[in-house]
Amino acid sequence: QPLPKKLQGGYDCFFTDPPYTLQGMALFLSRGISGLQKQKGLSIFLSFAHKSPDFTLNMQREFVLAGLTVREVLSHFNEYEAAQMIGNKGQMIVLTTTEMTDPTIKHPFLESLYTGEETPSKREYQCKRCKRSIQVGAQAKIVTIEQLKKRGCPRCKHQSFELLSRRRAQD
Length: 171
What we know:
Blueprint: E1 13-16, H1 22-35, E2 43-49, H2 53-65, E3 68-79, E4 89-97, H3 115-118, E5 121-127, E6 133-137, H4 145-151, E7 161-168
């Protein structure tokens, strides 16, 4: 849903860590931009996975469409536990508003946001404490690693896991 009216236009910066898809990034940036004052030179802090050059080019196209410039890219800025798919590290992209800055998505968003929605997968994680294996993903009781961390290991309730394997849901 669009940002509530009372939150629009009042802020001078924002931080976001969106899903690592172009749609997720564009939506989170759009909602954040809606909250910013209409002023050039404001900072946006975008935490995002390191991606291929082609994906990065598409990211930069999204920035231009939103009227944003890239001020700085801090590689390996964030470290994530149980995020082997992205090398456990993310980057911080510092963006700056211009006179052209405007949200690219202004209406309710109904498309897929997450990589798992675009390419359903099955993953096997192992609890770092008791070594129990847990299935996560399409057709599993637990669909995402975030849900697994929130619930904890079924055996010992520990909330730290290691990815053992990943395959497409159709396999």
